[in-house]
């Protein structure tokens, strides 16, 4: 198999970026078996925990300096195995989270035993950090992902920089540092991917960079212009998960800007992508992350336009795909999911008085609060608004007004300030029939949405002001 390996790896990559994830994994698994590294068919939690225990034992008490001092792998067969494990990283990440964990853990052990692979070992250590985050060991997450970034320079990695920077800054380091810190590494990841013709990986980094800008409140027209610049390249990858993921973000932004086919539709249908066709293609490929990304974008849009029942329906769709949630558990987009999940349950409790929503909302709020106490700066940006929502159930009018104003002042991003004003206005109107406060908050929200470039939301608020204007 040795002399065929370059072609086989190329085929694994090709099938993956054509969204044929199952076929890519099958080819990779067959080749690994021929190299003496058979992968389990359906690894359960027990198998994953055993592999994790073996890996922690292999690392032992080695310091970062000792791990960085490991030699470069010299055994060609082991190097080939590590290369192939790197090749199946993408298809396992998007469709088979348990197998991803097994592959990463074995790669780390091989690197410790036989030496570091310049292009794959740094990524495997970064992904190992991600696994630690999934079990709540955030200190180890930060340690191994920073170690992975140091390895890149030490090993003079080239193509490996693309995945390692992505994994480190998107799948872990944000637990201790602001999302803004990921923007420069993601741009570098994109540039490296395009330089070495790893277009799928490079475009994925660009899509995630634009998503980071979106989450951090950058003007929507600016993000839209950047997307337009990359759409021609992405169209060449229209059958891949890259175009699907970017198309969702692009369509979401177009909807907010009021530039989709029908601005009344709070779903991803319009000029950026064919939503039904994309969903069918992702379903055929068992692309759990892509399917959840569609549901999450639709959940956000419906919540943004106060279509709460539809938003909850999309939220529940995501819960029905646990593997997709597991794979993105450490991704910085989970900040958005956790926020909207908590907000949705609180709003539904206010609307329906069903205590199950209150319990679930409080559970999510407790989780977010715990993350903030453990040093996560990104969830800290959304916590004040959720605390205000919880506080508003029982507090008097003056206290509710005060706690929402505190939340607004603490919101770092323009879209969160707008949403906080909007929620404050609705609570003051529905609970206390305070039309003056309601109007004041909605006018402030309209100004913030205008600043952001979300003209569909500006129109939405103007309609509310017209329809509910007191006599």
TrEMBL record:
<dbReference type="InterPro" id="IPR053159">
    <property type="entry name" value="Hybrid_Histidine_Kinase"/>
</dbReference>
<protein>
    <recommendedName>
        <fullName>Anaphase-promoting complex subunit 5</fullName>
    </recommendedName>
</protein>
